[in-house]
Amino acid sequence: MEEDIIFLNKGLSKVEDLILKNSPYKNNTLIFVDSITIAPSDFQEEGLTAAIMEWAAKAFNFEKPEIKVDYNQKNNKYEFYY
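-> structure tokens emitted (82 positions)
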């Protein structure tokens, strides 16, 4: 879970300005992640960054940033480009 927090924080920091702009609480906005639900067969920690960015876009009503995702067959991993 420690590693998950790094990826969640990375995603939130990428959309921080949009969250603060759209939150009624502005700089006093607090986001508390109580739990995450994942599909273990598809889970890749790096995907948490993109997932929290999409969650924030829905929660704070802004357009989600475009994220290019490619599958690297050689490494059997998805690669995310922000």
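The first strand starts at residue 68 and ends at 72.
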